[in-house]
Amino acid sequence: MKPENSSPKNDYDVAIVGAGPVGLATALGLRQRGIESIIVLDQTRAFRKVGQGVDLLPNGLKALKYTHTQAYENIKETGNKLIQPNQETKAEKNQPVPEWATRNVNGQKIRSFSLGYDDFFQKYGEGRVSISWYDLQTQLRILLPEEVVKANHRCVNVVAEPELKCVRADFISNLTAEANPYAHWENKQQDDKTSTVSSSQLPQSEITSIRAKLLELLGNNLDYKKNKMKTDIFS
Asked: Which of 26-30, 76-80, 198-202, 224-228 has the highest average model confidence (pLDDT)?
């Protein structure tokens, strides 16, 4: 697939397609370890408050702490504000620590466990944090330079270029995104075996490409044959 009127732009050591928690945490971890030539691209029109709540359990928090200490602290603080009222209010209302309970058909509690951060920490050596998906993404994203994370880039093609020791990825950016960032992508590509993307097929869109030594595709950001794939080219 070769996009019309498009030449590959800046080259990177690592390109990550998907600016969710995994993609952003990967970028933070790589930069923490000295790899700064990174780009993170996502098909969302704009980063906005969508999604539901996420529970980060002990293993997840331990992995995050190892990956990036500041991200760990920020997410823990944000999550604790969500699930725990301030101490004065909690004392006044004598609110119990939330728990997860299993009941039988008669409504009788047959087992339960505490959802409190301190209880989890005492049992597993790390706590539990509930946080909204948007807040989780935001706390990770703001720790990266603004130019590293780009929205409105929908990946439509990946091509290995061994002669250049890299991978090329082609993206579509919708030029109307600023006018309506809440609009959904319209799939105007035909579901056939053609291998050409043209501007006539994608009105009001711009087709661009990047090259990277390593390309990581996450989630449903690849509008192609597979939902998830990984291509590594080593020099």
From this structure: 26-30
**Per-residue pLDDT reduced to its tens digit, 2-47:** 454 455 555 899 999 999 999 999 999 999 999 999 999 999 888 8
| DSSP for 95-133, written as a single string | PPPPEEEEE-TTS-EEEEEE--HHHHHHHHSS--EEEEH
The set of residues, in sequence order, having a beta carbon less than 8 Å from that of 57 and lying 6+ positions away, is 120, 128
Q: What is the CATH number of domain 11-46+151-232?
A: 3.50.50
Tens of pLDDT, residues 151-185: 999 999 999 998 888 999 999 988 765 555 555 44
Residues in the chain: 235
Provide the CB-side half-sphere exposure for 147 (13 A, CA): 4
Domain ranges of the chain: 11-46+151-232, 53-141
